[in-house]
Design a protein that fits this description.
Keywords: Annexin, Calcium, Calcium/phospholipid-binding, Repeat. One of its GO terms (cellular component) is calcium channel complex. InterPro entries: Annexin, Annexin_repeat, Annexin_repeat_CS, Annexin_sf, ANX5. One of its GO terms (biological process) is calcium ion homeostasis. Belongs to the annexin family. It is a single chain. The chain is mainly α. The chain has four domains: 17-87, Annexin (Annexin V, domain 1, Orthogonal Bundle), CATH 1.10.220; 89-158, Annexin V, domain 1 (Orthogonal Bundle); 169-245, Annexin V, domain 1 (Orthogonal Bundle), CATH 1.10.220.10; 247-316, Annexin (Annexin V, domain 1, Orthogonal Bundle). It is 71% helix and 0% strand. The chain contains 20 helices and no strands. The chain has helices at residues 17-28, 35-44, 47-61, 65-72, 75-85, 88-99, 107-116, 119-133, 137-144, 147-157, 169-182, 191-200, 203-217, 221-228, 231-245, 247-259, 266-276, 281-292, 296-303, 306-316. It is elongated. The protein starts with 16 loop residues before the first helix and ends in a 5-residue tail after the last helix.
Length: 321
């Protein structure tokens, strides 16, 4: 059963992989590059079609399309085009591998991916990681993280969240009371209770727990997490809560803060725009407009430039003002 997708990028029709491959070769051959052709083709074909183009490119010219893009393009624009070419199934595994590689761990990437992906998606990421890198994702993550942050990541990696089948009001009440006692009512915080409940209960159950928690305590659960925890654990708990409430709203906020203020977090901007372009970017745009009083399109326009901007705006797929 195919999931109903709310992406901005869909299958292009009529599609001709060979014609696209030929146009891309022509755009990159000789002196200078026709960036406009490259970005127009790659942002308007979906990921499966881009893989067909890469295959046709190799068949026709004996050349690797990604290698050619890397040698012809530069900077953020290159990163974006190469990201678009990465097969969808490998995208998250690749991002996680780079987040835990070398000196220092990129906790932001671990948090974003593991908080927002469904249990089925997490299972798939683990399998792909094992196949591609011949290593266990869980082992790699536990080797690079520690404390309660590590514990919650491991819980999320088990991908054993309860399925969404009916809500038991008695358990809702119980969980809300447990969280209240573990945080606001306690000297110090029992982080483990937060980890178990937020990491394993179903989405519909937790939404009811958050409402009940507000009734019991007078606080939103986010306020309690903010007060009672800190550092990477706090960020991960907040990301999990936000994704339980609404994944598109979580990504709208992620995109907003990647561009707000001085400087742009281009890695995050590229990762979210590419990974959600075929999933829920239309919903993310709607949440963005609702929550930040401007459209995603306008913010990208203001915050980026050149071919990089053109390509991002094509992925964005329209203005909501």
């Amino acid at each position: 059963m195919a999931k109903y997708m709310r992406g901005t990028v869909t299958a292009f029709a009529p599609f001709d992989a060979r014609a696209d491959a030929e146009a891309l070769r022509k755009a990159m051959k000789g002196i200078g590059t026709d960036e406009e052709t490259v970005l127009t083709i790659l942002t308007t074909r979906n990921n499966a079609q881009r893989q067909e183009i890469a295959s046709a490119f190799k068949t026709l010219f004996g050349r690797d399309l990604v290698d050619d893009l890397k040698s012809e393009l530069t900077g953020k624009f290159e990163t974006l085009m190469v990201s678009l070419m990465r097969p969808a199934y490998i995208f998250d595994a690749h991002a996680l591998k780079h987040a835990i590689k070398g000196a220092g761990t990129n906790e932001k990437v671990l948090t974003e991916i593991l908080a927002s992906r469904t249990p089925a998606e997490v299972q798939n990421i683990k399998q792909v990681y094992q196949q591609e890198y011949e290593a266990s994702l869980e082992d790699k993550i536990t080797g690079e993280t520690s404390g309660h942050f590590q514990r919650l990541l491991v819980v999320l990696l088990q991908a054993n969240r309860d399925p969404d089948v009916g809500v038991d009001e008695a358990l809702v009440e119980q969980d809300a009371q447990v969280l209240f006692r573990a945080g606001e009512l306690k000297w110090g915080t029992d982080e483990e209770k937060f980890i178990t409940i937020l990491g394993t209960r179903s989405v519909s159950h937790l939404r009811r727990v958050f409402d009940k928690y507000m009734t019991i305590s007078g606080f939103q659960i986010e306020e309690t997490i903010d007060r009672e925890t800190s550092g990477d654990l706090e960020k991960l708990l907040l990301a999990v809560v936000k994704c339980i409430r609404s994944v598109p709203a979580y990504f709208a906020e992620t995109l907003y803060y990647s561009m707000k203020g001085a400087g742009t977090d281009d890695d995050t901007l590229i990762r979210v725009m590419v990974s959600r372009s075929e999933v829920d970017l239309l919903d993310i745009r709607r949440e963005f407009r609702k929550n930040f009083a401007k459209s995603l399109y306008q913010m990208i326009q203001k915050d980026t430039s050149g071919d990089y901007r053109k390509a991002l705006l094509l992925l964005c797929g329209g203005d909501d003002d």
